Amino acid sequence: MTAPRVGSVLSVRDLEVRYRGPDGDVCAVDGVSFDVRPGEVLGLAGESGSGKSTLAHAALRLLRPPAVITRGEVWIDGEDVLALGPGGLARLRWRTASIVLQNALDALNPVLTVHEQLADTLRAHAPFPNARAARLRAEELLALVGLGEDTLDRWPHQLSGGQRQRVNIALALALRPKLVVMDEPTTALDVVVQRELLQRVLQLRDALGFAVLFITHDLPLLFDLADRVGVLYAGRLAELGPAAAMRENPAHPYTRGLLRAMPPLTGPRRPLAGIPGAPPDPAHPLPGCRFAPRCAVAAARCRTEVPFAHAVGPGWRAACHAAPGLPATRSP
Fold it and tell me: Is 130 a residue whose pLDDT tops 80?
């Protein structure tokens, strides 16, 4: 067992997650390692099925059967998450780390008002002298995310998608955690509401100092939001580095393909080009580089040798045989 990286609020080491099935295991996350530093926004991007949400839920021990963590370590604020029992997990969640789920309507209880949902979370994890004190705290939380006091007595179906997601963010910040995991929180929101929501998240991060692990399929959005960006492909981390440097000159062919396939949020218009082919079947993983069948620069070795991550710049690594900075000899 290794110790967490000093100064990291989240450390993930060689994490592997498999889904058990009658026909064998399916590996959804395969040997992923990264750190999230206090106060930073780390973004994770990738196509559907790349393992993004599985990774997020594994980090907080929220996976349900048939998903199983089969290898690796997860440390949050110095605690070994995979070694915690039910009591330790209850103490960790919401207080130290919280999550904003993808579908805001599904994440909220349809038969409870916003006030009841906030009050339940507060009462379960923090002592409040009376119901009035809990309501005042709920009002403060809604004000943080730009919602008025009248929202407290509404039901989830009476709110817009953006309002519901703001309520979820308020819930996630209720006990001032050090880490907030956001699992595709802008899904199904229009672009104007997306921008407003993301600006609010950054304002809250600056004011409260929490770190964010932000997960999405939208790579251009991450480059505008995150301090560092990681790109997942078929369960493996293809590239991880500073957002500004990766935006200008991504090292991995998959990252370049994602950027060409998505319209930029800012700057001049440019023609879009999709990535040919489809991701491999996770039930039948390919040898070598899993992106090789879709890669325009793949060589013979790419189909047989697994590319291990190597440095291509300060704090920047890519798992590609053709990426710049490849050393003469490499080790896993």
Answer: no
- Measuring CA to CA, which residue among 198, 195, 193 is closest to residue 162? 193
**What are the residues whose beta carbons fall under 8 Å from the beta carbon of 207, sequence distance 6 or more?**
none
Residue type for position 100: V
CA distance 17 to 290: 17
Residue 34's nearest CA partner among 319, 323, 321 is 319
Long-range pairs for 306-312 at CB < 8 Å and ≥24 separation?
308/332, 309/237, 309/240, 312/241, 312/251
Q: SS3 for 237? A: strand
Residue 235 near residue 30 (C-beta atoms within 8 A):
yes
CB 315 within 8 A of CB 307: no
What is the pTM (predicted TM-score) of this model?
0.92
Token pair recorded at residue 19: 């889904």
Model confidence at 3, pLDDT cuts 50, 70, 90, reads low
The rounded percent of the chain whose pLDDT value lies above 70 is: 94
Can you list the alpha helix ranges (DSSP code H) found in the chain?
52-59, 86-92, 104-107, 114-125, 131-144, 161-172, 191-208, 219-225, 243-248, 253-261
CA distance 57 to 42: 16
- pLDDT tens digit sequence for 190-211: 878 888 888 999 999 999 999 9
Helix/strand/coil for 89: helix
